[in-house]
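Lecture notes, unit on protein representations.

Consider one protein chain, 65 amino acids long.
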Amino acid sequence: MIIVPIKEGENIEKALKKLKRKFEKTGVVKELRNRQKFTKPSVVTRDRRLKAIYIQKLQQQSMEK
């Protein structure tokens, strides 16, 4: 459960913004979207591999500069 402490006299919109931020950091929404459809394990590994290649290219480019 996500708990957001609210100070005395704090604006409700500010508290809601904190709640949204904490909710996104936990990754609950991302997990729900992933569970809505089934992806084959081969597709998951392919996506991970492509992401790793992309990150590696970015790191190499930053090292060259």
